[in-house]
Amino acid sequence: MNVMIIILFIISIVLLGISFFQRDNVKELEQELDHLQLSAMQEIYKLKKKMRVVEEELLQTDAPLKDDTTADNQDNQVNSSRILAKYRQGMSLEAIALSESTTVKEVRAIVNENERALT
Fold this sequence. Notes:
- This protein is 84% helix and 0% strand.
- By secondary structure, it is mainly alpha-helical.
- Among the domains are: 30-61; 72-118.
- The protein starts with a helix and ends with a helix.
- It comes from Metabacillus malikii.
């Protein structure tokens, strides 16, 4: 009986020693997975960066969806109404031109065009 216990004890020590010297497949697999995940994240970052560049290029070259003339007319009407309101409040043509970022000549033309509405 003692011999059997000693033999089992020796076998267990040998198996334990062998298990320490064997390659760890799980550890290698984890390292490979980490490397794969890191390279995938780098590729995703590069693709997102390229997509941003392409989107910016498309936005710069795209024609506007609305007709420019209608948009300009609406902007001119809004500017005209603001200019006329400021003129009615007694602001000088120079002050109106400065506040609206236009020339005095343009302000004078708008005021002259709408002179009937002012009186």
